[in-house]
TrEMBL record:
HAMAP family: MTA_SAH_deamin. The lineage of its organism: Bacteria, Bacillati, Bacillota, Clostridia, Neomoorellales. Gene3D superfamilies: Metal-dependent hydrolases, Urease, subunit C, domain 1. Residues 57-403 form the Amidohydrolase-related domain. This is 5-methylthioadenosine/S-adenosylhomocysteine deaminase. Catalyzes the deamination of 5-methylthioadenosine and S-adenosyl-L-homocysteine into 5-methylthioinosine and S-inosyl-L-homocysteine, respectively. Is also able to deaminate adenosine. Pfam families: Amidohydro_1.
Length: 428
């Protein structure tokens, strides 16, 4: 990895104010210095120098909820409600996917994420050892969970697979891979199964990644069946006593919002997927005001239909304003925090990533600010949220390794990936 010096860039460190004409010094996998050029320790010599006078540096974006290999199902079953989409289209097609399909679908997702500035993602799917393998090869950071459908796991084989993922892959890739257990949702996992998963996670020392309160129908059905809403049921069963990443959280009461804040549940807000499936609009402004840690996710490419976190930031900001009628809520600065530091917190990684500070992991991106739509540079964070595009990302560095430079991905072969996914997406 060596030493890298990024010169003359505009730095959005998240941990403090924007720094103009700053420098970033990287020593192996860590940030050695971030700040004004004059503060760089004298005598520090770089192996690689990146001239970045036309670039904005910020922490790598954190996609807090996705299903990476669902790139294989992009545009496969659009314009349907969630229940029908899952039960009639997605689940039958997923039943035909094999391990190698998941591997190549994940590689396509990683290529898309690198190109649009995501350096860390939380993934829940199956054949997760194949996902972990792809992540290690591509150089990204990921928090991986085996998706667990309780009604299909009477013998406990799926849970055993989730446990194996934790034991075999947690800490792989020089620590870039972390793990959780992934009970899909209260409507697919009965209470006794959720309790068993939570107990297992506690024994392993890992957290939980789960879908909660995504649709009104889900909330009504879970309440009718168990006497509690999905959030209340998860709390009653003790899930929130563990570190929990809860995807969606669209349909919440004020009491449930307070509970999520109290229990420090990380919420993965997926605005574009929720809009496309007409699931509703999460009360993001209310959650933030209550102290909930709200991060941003894309969900899978079958329901978004892209993995572009830059686009997701813009949708997050605009949707919150439109639904509340208040243009001041969820401002640009807050959205950038949601896409970086809040995502790191939701994954339990805030001590290592999410801000550009000396001593943290060297996970960062450079965005080309010399674009017509990013001029003039009145407010760099506003430009990032309201005007930038994923294609503006020029350079991606993870763990001190350059994964993309001048828009060229170094760790993945795009042609090979396109050929593989085209062949595999036409199966069955």
């Amino acid at each position: 990895m060596g030493k890298i010096l990024i010169k003359d860039c505009t730095i959005v460190p998240i941990s403090g104010p924007v720094i103009e004409e700053g420098v970033i010094a990287i020593n192996d996998d860590r940030l050695h210095y971030v700040g004004p050029a004059g503060g760089l320790p004298p005598g520090w010599q770089a192996d690689t120098i990146i001239e970045a006078g036309d670039k904005v540096a910020l922490p790598g974006l954190v996609n807090s909820h996705t299903h990476a290999a669902m790139t294989l199902l992009r545009s496969f079953a659009d314009d349907l409600p969630l229940k029908q989409w899952l039960e009639e289209k997605i689940w039958p097609r997923e039943a035909k996917l094999e391990r190698e399909d998941i591997y190549w679908g994940t590689k396509l997702a990683l290529l898309e994420m690198i190109r649009s500035g995501t350096t860390t993602f939380a993934d829940m799917y199956f054949h997760m050892d194949a996902v972990a393998e792809a992540v290690v090869e591509a150089g990204l950071r990921a928090c991986l969970s085996q998706g667990l459908i309780g009604f299909q796991d009477s013998g406990g084989q799926r849970l055993a697979t989730g446990v194996s993922l934790v034991k075999e892959w947690h800490g792989a890739g020089d620590g870039r891979v972390t793990t959780m257990l992934g009970p899909h949702a209260p409507y697919t996992c009965p209470p006794e199964y959720l309790s068993k998963v939570a107990d297992t996670a506690a024994g392993l020392g890992v957290g939980l990644h789960i879908h909660l309160a995504e649709t009104k129908e889900e909330v009504e059905n879970v309440r009718a069946q168990y006497g509690y809403t999905p959030v209340a049921l998860a709390a009653k069963l003790g899930l929130f006593e563990l570190p929990t990443l809860a995807a969606h959280c669209v349909h919440l009461t004020a009491e449930e919002i307070a509970l999520l804040a109290e229990k420090k549940v990380g919420v993965a807000h997926c605005p574009e997927s929720n809009l496309k499936l007409a699931s509703g609009v999460a009360p993001v402004a209310e959650m933030l005001a209550a102290g909930v840690n709200v991060a941003i996710g894309t969900d899978g490419a079958a329901s978004n239909n892209n993995l572009d976190m830059v686009a997701e930031m813009r949708t997050c900001a605009l949707l919150a304003k439109g639904i509340t009628g208040d243009p001041t809520v969820v401002p640009a600065h807050q959205v950038v925090i949601m896409a970086t530091l809040n995502g790191a917190r939701a994954l339990g990684l805030e001590k290592e990533i999410g801000t550009l500070e000396t001593g943290k992991k060297a996970d960062l991106i450079l965005i080309n600010k010399h674009q017509p739509h990013l001029m003039p540079p009145h407010d760099v964070e506003a430009n990032l949220v309201y005007a930038a595009r994923g294609s503006d990302v020029d350079t991606v560095i993870v763990n001190g390794k350059i994964l993309m430079a001048a828009g060229e991905v170094k760790t993945l072969d795009a042609g090979e990936i396109y050929g593989q996914v085209t062949k595999r997406s036409s199966k069955g």
